[in-house]
Amino acid sequence: MRGARVNLYSGLKYGALIIWAVFVVAPFLWALSTSFKSDNGVTGGATYIPFLEYEPSLEGWAALFRDTSSGGISMQGPYLASLIVSIVSSGIALTLGTLAAYGLSRFTFRAGPLRNSDITFFFISQRIMPPAILAIPYFLLLQFTGLLDTHVGLILVYVAMLLPIVVWVMVDFFNTVPTELDEAAMIDGCNPIQAFYRIILPNCAPGLVVAGLLCIIFSWSEFFFALTLSFAKVQMLPPTIVILNSNKVPWWSLSASALVSVVPLVIVAFFLERYLSRGNLAGIIRE
Amino acid sequence: MIDSRYKHIFLFPALLVLVAIIIFPLIYTVRLSFSGWDINRPGLDSVGWANYARALVDGGFWNSMGTLYQMVFFCVLFEYTLGFGLALLLWKQVKAGRFFRLLFIIPMCVTPVVMAVVWKTIFHETLGPLNDILNWFGIAGVPWLSEATPAFISIVLVDVWQWTSLMFILLLAGLMSLPKEPYEAAQIDGAGPIRTFVHVTFPLMAPITIGALVIRLIESSKLMETIYAMTSAGPGSATETTSYLLYIRSLREFQIGYTASLSMIYLVILIIALALFAKLLSRALIGRSEART
Amino acid sequence: MAEVKIEDVQKKFGSVLALDAIDLTIHDNEFVVLVGPSGSGKSTLLRIIAGLERETDGTVSINGETMANVAPKNRDVAMVFQSHALYPHMNVYDNLAFNQRIRGVPRKQVDDKVREVAERLEITNLLKRRPRQMSGGQRQRVAIGRALVRDPQIFLFDEPLSNLDAELRVRLRTEIKRLHGELRRTSVYVTHDQVEAMTLADRVVVLRDGRIEQIGEPDALYQRPANVFVAGFIGSPAMNLITAEAMNNLLHIGGQTLPVDVEHNGAVTLGIRPEDFLLEDPDAVDSINAQVTLIEPMGADTLVLCLIDVEHEVSVRLPRHVRVTNGEKLNLRPRKGSLHLFDPESGQRLN
Predict the structure, then answer these.
(1) In this model, does residue C120 exceed pLDDT 80?
(2) Would you call C158 helix, strand, or coil by DSSP?
(3) Considering only alpha carbons, which residue of chain A is nearest residue C82?
(4) pTM (predicted TM-score)
(5) Which of A275, A259, A263, A268 is nearest to A217 (CA)?
(6) CB contact under 8 A, C53 and B3
């Protein structure tokens, strides 16, 4: 009797997991299937399996890197732009944010009644800001400094957006590294900066990786500022694809471009899972 | 306490960037809210409290707050519940557990807006697979994106698809950090799985629950991209959230001064609501003596 | 030459007073142990000497130079931490060599120094290992090695043996004593274990609640504790402390009397060590009657708990071969000069 109960329970468990897994994968599979369709696979109603229900074609994929004048999407430009902006802004945010997080973890700051935890909270609370509110000032600011529609302008904005994430992850991480290590380094002859990058930083790889991956994810997927602060000279990936939507671009090239744009993120997801399963994320949330 | 002369080098670069790029624009927005800058009258003039007065009777604005509130409520509710459920399922050693974990983390890592575009094709009334599958079961096709309630549901569904993974990850990490002793005690006491959950797991997870809920609430309050891609706030303004409305009014209709005042009102309400929520939840789950700000 | 002078030092953490009115001079080549219960401020004082904390008031000077604005790395001190604090991402060789490299010492010299220290501490076979691949005792040895490579003018130890198991503790303690004998460097050692204090120190500083209770050679602290706290803290098993009444050079304990040489009249706290009781014949003078309540054989001696006149409990240390039985009546005579009298309110020594 016990064995049957266990089996039923276990069966339900796996059943639920599989249902959710199917739900997770469904849009990807649909996009994949659709990307190989052409007219006949779409206009007659939904179709799923190639060869059985429709004639597959490579039209969707071919259009990706073809020039727009010949009906293509020309994705290499936006791809490159997103790559540059993501990597550079993540790098800068990681550097500045880690330095700030180390400072907040090790030293005592006081500004009137405000102490360290308030400053940390200040950093993290920036995430509350809806991009829609900042859109106008940023637009005007970048226009004024001539940085509108440039890589630099976007990078600047993204760094501000990413700093809270880096500080959030790294402050808690540093708090788990005992201060005796810094002290031993300083007695050994380091000034605080040397202690930081020679002793503490080399032991922070997991935290840095998680923070870095999160930065890449957020900056690659950022849509709003990419939409409003760049148009002609700089085109980022997410707006490019969304605009395709309204340009009467056929479903197959749309699906293909969507898939291509998220592939790097799936790879990032793989690494993120690896590092999260090692780390102590729980400490971060308890805050 | 270590040599304090260096501490500024660490903190200040980041603090400066943040102040320059977020605080100053915010202050500028406050100033803008007192001006009448729009497409007919560009420039920073001063109209006193006129914008705010107008905002108070702006039906569209308050509607969008209501819509936002409803959406956030359902989204976070489902994401939390499902996320917790998945976390519980994958908590103990499961065959292919690693595989499931990796699979489940993918939705939160991919570009929300791009996936929304894909979902839009799925929700297509005549050509999309969703109605097609419903037809297999004899259910009539739903006008997903052309009627108010289905459109609302479709947005919530997409958001749940995307962000349940975040709750899942956070809650799973929390579960894995729980101490074993209470469970052993419960086992000795003879508690079944449901009772163990109610009396051991859930209370122990209280701080994590609060943290995860607050994180997700903050992020989902900005709900805009999915709507942009899927419904453009339609039909009518059935799925118009405040962020979307602010976007339209400021950058499409160019009512810069007025939208600035809307932004300020929205921000204040949002911060108060979040703070209240966090405090109430803390008190409810953790208890008076331990509740923090 | 390394003399540390601490003058009227006070340390506050916010509104909490961690150290107050600390006056101490540590002489050249001296091994000074700071001992006390947790919260007594001993670690804080050590960290102030190291430069890791800054004193709120008072002066700390090394060799006559005030250290108020001198960073730890410029004070020529080396510290061994309780948790070894070895650099996890480096192997033992690099851990030992780090402080030399960062000062730009030429590679050959660094190598010589590291190997010499490794040999002295018998850790040469561990040079390629990482901290996580070693046992607690090995790690602590490497931590000591790191300090030796520094060759500083002052060695600082912050409860280095507290995290080790008993056997290891004794072994490393002996090694530290041996090292000091060879190197003769000024050393300041913090511990809560009074046995460590007594065995290692040239002089002992007893701290409680941020104040110095007594400074002196181990023997002096043992023979003449300055107050009740030191009396009870130093020595294991602890000194017996019972209430008594002094009147005209006579001590009244319960209903019995003992002769004593003190000018005080009135209530006193009497201290007498378990090993200072001598077993006497029933008709001897200057002795007290006591009844055995508990016998604890400890191997080399036996600790016997006795009641004097039902009220006062004392523990008596008897040699192994002496047999007593539970309930037996004993006649105890305190050794000459082994009575310590303290004021019951202030705790200060009276005789």
Answers:
(1) yes
(2) strand
(3) A180
(4) 0.81
(5) A268
(6) no
| Amino acid (one-letter) located at A77 | G
Backbone angles phi, psi at B77, to 5 degrees: -60, -50
Residue C67 lies in a domain: yes
- Determine the 3-state secondary structure of C275 from DSSP: helix
Name the residue with higher pLDDT: B67 or A8. B67
The residues of A whose Cβ lies within 8 A of any Cβ of C are 178, 180-181, 183-191, 194, 198-199, 202-203
Q: Which residues of B touch A16 (CB under 8 A)?
A: 85, 89
Q: Where are the domains of chain B?
A: 59-290
Boundary (domain end) residue, out of C217, C232, C247: C232
Q: Please say whether the structural domain B59-290 has been given the CATH code 1.10.3720.10.
A: yes
Q: How far apart are CA C30 and CA A247, in angstroms?
A: 86
pLDDT-above-90 percentage for chain B: 17
Q: What is the CA radius of gyration of chain B?
A: 23
Tell me what ipTM this predicted complex has: 0.84
Task: Please state, in angstroms and rounded to a whole number, the distance separating the CA atoms of residues C231 and C247.
Answer: 23
| Chain B residues in contact with A129 (beta carbon < 8 A) | 22, 26, 267
CA distance to A155, A178, A225, B61, B145, per residue, from B217 (Å): 26, 33, 21, 20, 25
Looking at residue B242, its amino acid is T
A215: in domain: yes
CB B58 within 8 A of CB B262: yes
Choice among A50-59, B77-86, C248-257, C283-292 with the minimum mean pLDDT: A50-59
Q: Minimal CA–CA distance to C318: which of C199, C224, C328?
A: C328
Helices (H), A72-150: 76-106, 116-125, 131-144
Compute how many other C-beta atoms are within 10 angstroms of the C-beta atom of residue B178: 16
What helix, strand, coil percent values describe chain A, rounded to 5? 75, 0, 25
The reply to whether C78 falls in a domain is: yes
